[in-house]
Amino acid sequence: MHLRKDYLKVAKKLREILKLEERISKGEKLDPKQLEKIAAKGALLKEVTVLAVKLPGDTDIFSKNQDITDLLPPASQRDIEKKRKQEEEKKQRRNERQEEENNKPEFMCRHDRPILAVCVSSDGRHLFTCSKDKYAICWSLAKTLLKSVVTFAGHNGAVWAVDVCPPSPLVPAWLATGSADGKVMLWQGEPGRHGAGAIASPLHTLDHGGIVRVLKWCPFEDYQASSDGGRRLASASEKLGSTPAMIAVWHVSPKGVFTQIMQNKDIPTKANDLQWGNGAKQKLFTAHDNGFVGVWLAESPGSLLKTIKVHSAAISALCLTMGGTTLVTASKDSTSAAVDVSQPSTETLATYKWNRPLNAVAVSADFKAGAAGTIVVAGGKDARDVTRAKDMQEDEFESKVMEAASGEPLAAGKGHFGPVHALLSLPRLGSSGAFASVSEDGCLKVFGYDGLLLHSDTLQ
């Protein structure tokens, strides 16, 4: 600090001399004391040069006192500029190291942003979630308190989609994630292949484009009979920049190579969800903001086979019954519909009403529309409307379990304090099945159909 002060003191004296020299140039006569000051100019220049060389390279004193800097010898000016550039390079390297450290993935014990989707491993022992925090997490269901065992780090945007396929003789389970960064990433989806507390990196990446909102592995693959062990993955994305919304089907080889089977950008609105449909021709069911379900050929050219008007508002989610004959919807019009997709008429078999916009739906393994089993619906006011919604229900964020035959409520999954974004049926869990729920509150919970909390990522 004293160097800076000393430099500024000498600079002040030099400026006084420069003013005196200017007066002489105009023909003025100076008194002896003033002439003595001018005579000291050489010594002051030497002094200021010595001080300048000692000052740090990142100082702003030279740019703020350019008139004095210009008086320094050329060699000193070059040295100062060299030192400044070196200091800038050091600073840049420090910033890069700091940024690298800040962006370094960390093991996540739980999500710290809203959870957007959930899926289950083929053996039913692990759940996978994805979040706006840019991570996916694998959870062990071994204990009541869910334990995070693997963190999947690699996306640079909110991770909207997650799905895992069963392992095959040729390939282990692939975990697929889709993000707002326009990427689809493939990961080793068998937790046992990772060490405890592992931070996993993607094995393969597809530059999909758009905001990837939905991913679903085809559940009808015969991996044993497949010639190459490849699998099919359906995707749905939202418009981003010049990339339009689209649905697509990809063949994923055992080496993780993506080959597009079909793509359709001629869709009415973005697909909020999709499900695979079986039959004479495999197809995709998609949910749209205009209240329609689209039925598409799941192979090239991806033709639109049918549209089904089901709701008066956006359809948020779809699920299929165990046999794949009934498609069940959740809509912002506060209803859920069960549609018979085994017949060309696609008749609505039952409608279930609730008192809030619905984001998610799940059904029990024994569900039969209007006849047997249970249906679970959940949602709540949109996150941005919650603080000002005067008509918000006390149980706004509960998952309602209803009797499929009558639509009467049987129980509720309680504990979330934000809108529920997704539900997942877990038929092998508990005495008679269970369901998982994920929410805007960043929490994952698992309930029995009696409303009993079986697992949670937080202590209750």
Automatic annotation (TrEMBL):
The keyword Cell division does not apply. Gene3D superfamilies: YVTN repeat-like/Quinoprotein amine dehydrogenase. GO terms for cellular component: eukaryotic translation initiation factor 3 complex, eIF3m. The lineage of its organism: Eukaryota, Sar, Alveolata, Dinophyceae, Suessiales. Keywords: Repeat, WD repeat. Residues 73-105 are annotated as: Disordered. One of its GO terms (molecular function) is RNA binding. One of its GO terms (biological process) is cytoplasmic translational initiation. SUPFAM superfamilies: WD40 repeat-like. This is Serine-threonine kinase receptor-associated protein. It comes from the Eukaryota. Residues 78-105 have a biased composition (Basic and acidic residues). WD repeats lie at residues 152-188. Belongs to the WD repeat STRAP family.
